[in-house]
Amino acid sequence: LPDEQQLTIVLYFYGDYALAEVADVLHRTESRACQIKQTALATLRKLLRGKIDR
């Protein structure tokens, strides 16, 4: 994942940051932080699906 997506996932899921807090760290709007999180999750799902199907 790109750095911004990695940071979003780490802060949100491991750091227990609220989405508004993630947005502040990234200097983005909350809406954009949500988009970044969703894109990262979609990418991770694709990657994991490929590994599980093998």
From TrEMBL:
Q: Some GO term, biological process aspect, for this entry: which one?
A: DNA-templated transcription initiation
Instruction: Kindly list any coiled-coil regions of this protein.
Output: none
One GO term in the molecular function aspect is: DNA-binding transcription factor activity
Where do the RNA polymerase sigma-70 region domain residues begin and end? 1-46
UniProt cross-references to InterPro entries, sorted A to Z = RNA_pol_sigma70_r4 (IPR007630), RNA_pol_sigma_r3/r4-like (IPR013324)
- Designated name of the protein: RNA polymerase sigma-70 region 4 domain-containing protein
Organism whose genome encodes this protein: marine sediment metagenome
Output the lineage of the source organism.
unclassified sequences, metagenomes, ecological metagenomes
